[in-house]
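Possible regression after last week's pipeline update?

I re-ran a chain I had predicted before the update to compare outputs. Posting the input and the new output here so someone can diff against the archived version. Not blocking, just want to make sure nothing changed silently.
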Amino acid sequence: MRIFKNRGDIFFSKTDREKSAEQKFLLGALAFIILFTAVFVLALGIKYNFNIKEFFAPDEPVTQLTEQEEYMPAQVQGKDNFAVFVKDEKKLLFAVLVQVDMDNISYKVSALKADTLCNKKNLNEMITASTPENAKTGIEKLLNVKFDYYLSMEYSNFCEFYDMLGATNYPVISDIKFKDNDSVSPYSLKLKAGEQKISGKEAVALIRYYLDEKKNTSAANDFILSGLLQQINKDNVENAEELFQYFVMNAQTNITVRDFSLAQGNLSVLSDERTAASVYSADAQYDNTSLKKESMQSIKSYFSK
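New output (post-update):
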């Protein structure tokens, strides 16, 4: 107890008996609180499957990964070279060399004119008088590079197949209004400047226009690469069996069903938006109908394995 005096507080201690009674009361209250808390925690643990080891375990470090770091593409490798020929009932319209490089996840392209000379015969003569396989062989001898596959499609089938894959969004730099009535296979092309959706028919005409009229193989390559990047996409890969069925029914090719099956991993990686495939243009430069020596060396360096 405390007694107040004029000069401050004076404290008188309690008796031993009073201390003992107070300590017993406090100890009893403390024991009750501990017991109640233990029962309460046990009940919660049973109800919510509480794990005391996990509760007291140190926190695991949390690492935040970017989308690019989380994406681990399938293990793919190898390089495949393709010789592509588009023709009508009268002549070869153009050829395109394509390399799908899975070692570096990239596409390489070189568009060639139909009259490109290969060992005293041009590609058009090889296609019309023989087979696309022989035309592929002629390119191999010219460049001294092995091409794994060839494929040749008639104009109408190629345009339909292109449209099945989807139109290509392409920025046209300036208005194009062109009509060719003089060649064996006449064509016309009319495009406005700006972003355009290019159909199969327009794609064939645009490649011919760049190669034959503008002598601009670089522009032809750029357009073809745009098509590859856009048309090898998730939707087309999911629909690949139907697309391949149309392809093999309407093309001359040495691509087999087994080749198609083995390519599924490559297609999955290339069609994923996170892959970001690189593109390379191997420009064909001509002296009349013959490839210039420097140009042949450049194309060879792109397509060598």
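Follow-up from reviewer: compared with the archived run. Residues 16-48 form the longest helix (33 residues). Marking as no regression found.
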